[in-house]
Amino acid sequence: MQLVTNKQGLNGTIRVPGDKSISHRSIMFGALANGTTTVSNFLKGEDCLSTIGVFRALGVRIEEFPDKIVVHGTGWDGLKRPDETLDVGNSGTTIRLMLGILAGRPFDATLEGDASIGKRPMGRVMLPLREMGAIFEAKDANFAPVKVTGTKLQPMTYTLPVASAQVKSAIIFAALQADGETTIIEKEKTRDHTEQMIRQFGGAITTDGLTIRVNGGQEFQGQNVVVPGDISSAAFFIVAGLIIPNSKIRLENVGLNPTRTGIIDVVKEMGGKITVEQTSKAGDEPAGTVIVETSDLKGIEIGGDIIPRLIDELPVIALLASQANGQTVIKDAEELKVKETNRIDAVVTELSKMGVALVGTDDGMIIEGNQTLHGATVQSYGDHRMGMMLQIAALLADSDVALEKAEAINVSYPSFFEDVASLYQ
Ligand code: S3P
């Protein structure tokens, strides 16, 4: 696909689509609850539709309307053994969280996904769940397809070796089915949407610093869930507004959960003009308006416990850094290697093609500032966030940019190219 290039003056308002992490969890808790759950501003991207498909295959009735999703919850005991292999598509969140849910159900099921899913590590989830008694068989002991043989689970105390909300959430779902209290100690604080939604659906879970405690045997009640916009989708426009000359972009209904707002802190530290105003709070999921305008930026060092708060934004933050004055160092981000693609290699390879001076390291990247972006043929590697980052990069490029595998953006932001176009017309 030929990308739009050589633009100045992006101006206007965007309402980014619903948050991907919260949309997945709204279907999961809706299905596991008793009664009906209505979800508005649900993200109808391919990943969240995979979660709907999986629960339908488990016997849950889910209706899709233009403005909402209605989940007819079955409760834990209403899930049925699927007749078919459960297809998670490209979604790491679906497969990892489903491993925790299915581990304690009294039937067996097999989960599989696309080629990218087949390369992503599942051992990090299977290892702790096995300590609770879970039974799995996986390709080469670590990869999808994974067969789960549901069984009775025991509680445990577990210290997470990686900062991963997916692993944490899978353990929480298993713990909700175990006989007693499970304690999970996080390495660093990661997104807490699972914990928030347990409380919203009438359950209990306690968090004390990095320690989480949850009891098994909990029942949930159906709710009305309002999904805030996805800050990880807003991130592309935050960066566009800052680096493209003569721009001012207003982003409405952006989710502002503090476990997700690392990009705002980074932009402030780089000297970017950004204002944030919280306008609503659904449960503990705040949302608000973010306004950015073209700014003079300075390079910084990004590492430590901010990394989980901006992990999905790092590809576009690398682009942001290329337009700052001075060097930016991203470290402690080795998790980038096990995303939809190896995002250290992918960002370095593709931005290099456009003329950016940057190098990959073991745990991040070193990016030179004040870079001029040139035309090139680039590719997304089938990774939605790579595809969107490259379109924002192309807006600054001085000649044609072609993007291969552009359709990857449908995973989290199907209207992305239309929303970009709305800002320069
Ligand atoms: C997610 C957690 C993160 C993130 C992913 C969504 C979630 O993954 O990158 O896009 O919804 O829990 P990890 O838990 O592997 O860091």
TrEMBL record:
GO CC terms: cytoplasm
Function summary: Catalyzes the transfer of the enolpyruvyl moiety of phosphoenolpyruvate (PEP) to the 5-hydroxyl of shikimate-3-phosphate (S3P) to produce enolpyruvyl shikimate-3-phosphate and inorganic phosphate.
HAMAP family in the record: EPSP_synth
Cross-referenced InterPro entries: Enolpyruvate_Tfrase_dom, Enolpyruvate_Tfrase_sf, EPSP_synthase, EPSP_synthase_CS, RNA3'P_cycl/enolpyr_Trfase_a/b
Reactions listed under catalytic activity: 3-phosphoshikimate + phosphoenolpyruvate = 5-O-(1-carboxyvinyl)-3-phosphoshikimate + phosphate
Entries under PROSITE patterns matching the protein: EPSP_SYNTHASE_1, EPSP_SYNTHASE_2
Family: Belongs to the EPSP synthase family.
Entry keyword annotation includes Ribosomal protein: no
One of the GO biological process terms: amino acid biosynthetic process
SUPFAM superfamilies linked to this entry: EPT/RTPC-like
Active site residues of this protein: 312 (proton acceptor)
Gene Ontology terms for molecular function: 3-phosphoshikimate 1-carboxyvinyltransferase activity
Stated name of the protein: 3-phosphoshikimate 1-carboxyvinyltransferase
EC id: 2.5.1.19
Summary of subunit composition and partner proteins: Monomer.
Localisation per UniProt entry: Cytoplasm
Pathway: Metabolic intermediate biosynthesis; chorismate biosynthesis; chorismate from D-erythrose 4-phosphate and phosphoenolpyruvate: step 6/7
Residues given in the record as phosphoenolpyruvate binding sites: 20, 92, 120, 166, 343, 385
Residues given in the record as 3-phosphoshikimate binding sites: 20-21, 25, 164, 166, 312, 339
Domain Enolpyruvate transferase: 5-419
Keyword Electron transport carried by entry: no
